Each structure stands twice: as C-alpha cells, then as structure tokens.
Amino acid sequence: MRSRPRECDKEVVVDLACGMAVLRGANVFVQGIMAAPTSVHTGDQVSVYADLNGECRKGLTQKFTGHKMFVGNGVAHVGRDEIFCSSEGLSGVGIRMTQPVFEAPSLDQVLPAQVFPQNLPSIVCGRVLDPQPGETILDMCAAPGGKTVHIATLMQNKGRVVALDKTPQKLARVEKNAANWGITIIETYSGDSRKALDDQAAISGGPPYPSCSFDRILLDAPCSALGQRPASRNRMKLSELMSYSVYQRKLFSKAVELLKPGGVLVFSTCTVTREENEGQVGWALQTFPNLCLLTQDPHIGGIGLPGEGLSEGDRCKVQRFDPSVLTPDTQTPDTDTIGFFIAKFQKTS
User: Fold this and answer.
1) b/e 115-130 (16+ beta carbons within 10 angstroms → b)
2) CA angle, 55 as apex, 49 and 58 as ends, to 5°?
3) What is the band of 25 on the pLDDT scale with cuts at 50, 70, 90?
4) 257 and 188, same structural domain?
5) In degrees, to the nearest 5, what angle opens at C-alpha 254 toward C-alphas 153 and 317?
6) What percent of the chain stands above pLDDT 90?
7) Is residue 5 part of a domain?
C-alpha cells in the first residue's frame, strides 16, 4: 500500500467541494482556492487541504487553523498574487496534483476523442437502457452528459436523444461532450422535467411534449448523492434528505406519461438510501399498474435490500452498488464503486 505523501511547508486551503474532487482524481482549479501564503509562486511545491467546515476566509495569508483535511501535494500553476490580486478573473487549473492522497488517475484532456471516463455503474446504466438506433430517447436530468453521450453512441448516432436539465450552464457541458465525440443526434433544452408534459404540444423541438412520445427514458434522478466517494462528511439536514424521494416521484410520474406503451424506463440514483431506491420501486409498482419490473442485462451489482414492498424476485431484478457492504472473507467492499442503484421498468399499456 502506498505511504501517505509527506506534507510541504507551503499550505493551500481549498473549499470542501474542491477537496472532494481532488480525492476523486481532479486537479485544483483556481475558483476552489480559499487561502495561500504570500510566498506561493508559480512552480512551487504546495500541500493542499480541504476546509471541512467552510470557515476559511477567502484570501487568508496566515496558516489556517480550522478543521481541515490533507488531500495531497501538487505544483502551483499560478502564484498567490495572480489568484487573489488579479482583476482579470482567473480560471483553469491552479494546482496540478502530483501526490494525491488517493491514487485516482486524472483523465482530464487525455485523448478526449477516444476516452470518456465514467464510473462503472454509470456505464451499466446506459447498457441496461439498451437504446436502439432510430429510437427517440429522453434523458430527463442529463447534465453533465456522460450517460447522454453513451446513449447516443450505443444508438450509433442514429435517432434522437432529447437531453433536459434545469441549469443552462450544465447543458453547455453536455453539448461540449457531444461535440468532442462527433455526436449530432443530441438536442439540449433547459427546463424543469416536471413540466415536460403537455398533450397540446408537438413532439418536435423543445419541451413540453405530448404523452407517449418516447421509446425509452432515462431518469437519473437528483438524489442525496450519499454514494459518491471518496468523501469526508455530509452536512445535509434530515429534512433535505427526506425531500429527495418526493421530488423523484414527481419526475417519475411525468416519465411514465411521456413513455410509449411497450417503452422502457430506467430509474437510477447515486445514493444508498432505501427511500430513494427500493422504496421508489415499491411505490412505482403500486402506483402504476401498467408498469412491470424487468430483469437487467448486464447485472453485476448486488440485489435490492429486503422490505419496501418488493418480492424476492423483484429484489433480484434491481441492482444496487453499495461499497458499504463488505465480503465476509476479506472485509473489503463487495462492489468497489460509487454507491448506485438501477431499476428497469416497461410500460405495458
């Protein structure tokens, strides 16, 4: 096992989101830097710390004594004065990580036309949807577009993929990813997918759309994201945690209406709670008698958890990737991925 990198004298503090991204293989972008000593110049070796409680004052020059976590060493691509004293609004990489605590490889700008990095469960999600050339597909919560591009690729760039997301800036990433891969069948539209249904609308162009418009729908739902790893902590309140399942059901209901009879709906999350996963499947089967649960291919994750109204057969049809589940013999994660959940439905009528 690799030993922990030795910390440098010059300490740079970044915000928590930036620190967690570094643990997953990212470099430090200028926008995430909160504090650095005045002696930091371009080319310097620095140690990077994540501010765990959001207490570091922007531009601090003294050593930060708050609750922080070491995430690795790197080389400064810009000096402190350029970060905090420039009027040009710097962006881009501020620190290139050379010794991260976790050896997660950064694939940023590595063969972008040939390599598209994705988590294993995300890849499985696209395969489970099984989109076919010539079909009309809806990705209800598309950004940043990894699954969207994968879907279009599996369709051999033939057909139509409608990508919806509430945030226009995130849709720009979908468009960039599609352009990098030469994909031309993806249409991006900014909007709330809960308002994507209107029987007086046309199927062409942007939302809303009439019912029974899509052959397949991917609902990679907004969730509590408790499956993302590595991560140091989560400050989410219980009320916020409980709100996700309510929001997901509103999206799911619209998805069922937008799906053609015989069409396929894949529901997925990157979290591990029963309420957002098995609980949603149980609710869907009880609420929509015209839905049936399908067996997934490939199925390389674990089966669903007991309870939540699911039979043993239904539990075997969903797949759960849960790194908190350890194998009895080695006490290592049963599936060494992010936490993820996938369910596949078919609309019978």
Assistant:
1) ebeebebbebbbbbbb
2) 75
3) confident
4) yes
5) 65
6) 67
7) no
Look at residue 127 and give its three-state secondary structure. Answer: helix
Domain boundary among 100, 129, 154: 100
Phi, psi of 264 (to 5 degrees): -115, 135
Residue 40 has pLDDT above 90, yes or no: yes
Q: Would residue 147 count as lying in a domain?
A: yes
Which one of 85, 270, 292, 316 is the catalytic residue?
270
311 and 226 in a common domain: yes
Residue range of the domain that includes 261? 120-347
Q: Is the domain of 235 the same as that of 282?
A: yes
The length of the chain is 349
CATH number of residue 175's parent domain? 3.40.50.150
pLDDT above 70 for 60: yes
What SS3 class is residue 180?
helix
Peptide bond into 144 cis (omega under 30): yes
201 and 300 share one domain: yes
Number of helices (H), then strands (E), in the chain: 8, 14
270 annotated active-site: yes
Largest CA distance in the chain: 68
* CA distance linking residue 280 with residue 343, whole number of Å: 9
- CATH number of the CATH domain containing 44: 2.30.130.10
Taking the C-alpha atoms of residue 60 and residue 47, their distance in angstroms, rounded to an integer, is 16
Confidence grade of residue 107 (pLDDT, cut at 50, 70, 90) = low
3-state helix, strand, coil in the chain (%, to 5): 25, 25, 50
State the burial class of residue 243 (Cβ atoms within 10 Å of its Cβ: 0-12, 13-18, 19+): middle
In this structure, the answer to whether residues 154 and 34 fall within a common structural domain is: no
Residue 7, pLDDT > 80, answer yes
pTM of the entire predicted model:
0.77
127 assigned to some structural domain: yes
Tokens at residue 17, please?
């989101």
Amino acid identity, residue 302?
G
Task: Let me know whether 37 and 149 are in one domain.
Answer: no
